[in-house]
Amino acid sequence: MGLHIDNLTAGYAGQTVVSDLTFAVPAGRIVALIGLNGAGKSTTLKQVIGLKRPLAGSLTLDEFSLEENPAAYKNELAYIPEQPVLYDELTLDEHLHLVLAAHKQDDAAHWARVEELLALFRLTGKGHWLPVHFSKGMRQKVMLVSAFALDTKLLVIDEPFLGLDVLAQKQLIDLMKERAAAGTAVLLTTHLLSQASAYVDDFALLEEGRLSFFGSAEALASSHHLSESDLDALFS
Ligand SMILES: Nc1ncnc2c1ncn2[C@@H]1O[C@H](COP(=O)(O)OP(=O)(O)OP(=O)(O)O)[C@@H](O)[C@H]1O
């Protein structure tokens, strides 16, 4: 169960960026896709969420193949992009209803969850606000509330901490851990390796589009002759 990436090859306009990538994000695990700028992390996530067709390979979420059953596959995932995507003309509440409705989860139970998350991120009472009124961090929090309000088998998060204050970063880590404990598979990208070692189960290291390591923080650190607390020095 969970996400299986098998022999994925992907790229743009004939140029291969990710080659023969194979790893899994089992239900209940948090996996961080890491690598230098341009290594292919966001490209991989775009494939995982079904935004682009692979050049080769397959993606499976539980029993759903992206190729054979794209609607069922996509219904079981929530995605938080690196840059918040909001419609200028929709209020905060309208955005949240839209996301829930797209997943057929716009009901009282999910709206109660929305209200808990709005309170957590100090957005209560701002349901009538338009995106133009939000700060950068608040826009990111709207994406977090939308994604964490959904019941999905997979959470995909691209660079989750950009623009978030220290309190919101801690709350996000707690939410990821909570969702993983409830059986959700979590796949994220991050450059904050030491911080990640405290909550990530496995690291998938991409080098020039190829998987060069998969395993725990401890194994990642020792494979590069580092201590776990020095993981931020991995690429220096
Ligand atoms: N839309 C695109 N068209 C063409 N090439 C692209 C496109 N997006 C990314 N690339 C190229 O694909 C390669 C991988 O980019 P990608 O964004 O996946 O890297 P990344 O690991 O997410 O990097 P970062 O840490 O900077 O976010 C880079 O060489 C980049 O120039």
From TrEMBL:
Q: What's the superkingdom here? A: Bacteria
Q: Which SMART domains match?
A: AAA (SM00382)
Protein name as it appears in the record? ABC transporter ATP-binding protein
Limits of the ABC transporter domain: 3-233
Query: What Pfam families has UniProt attached to this entry?
Result: ABC_tran (PF00005)
Which keywords accompany this UniProt record?
ATP-binding, Nucleotide-binding, Transport
Q: Where do the TM regions start and end? A: none
MF (Gene Ontology): ATP binding
Q: What PROSITE patterns does the record point to?
A: ABC_TRANSPORTER_1, ABC_TRANSPORTER_2
Q: What is the lineage of its organism?
A: Bacteria, Bacillati, Bacillota, Bacilli, Lactobacillales
Is Metal-binding given among the entry's keywords? Answer: no
Q: Which InterPro entries match?
A: AAA+_ATPase, ABC_transporter-like_ATP-bd, ABC_transporter-like_CS, ABC_Transporter_VariousFunc, P-loop_NTPase
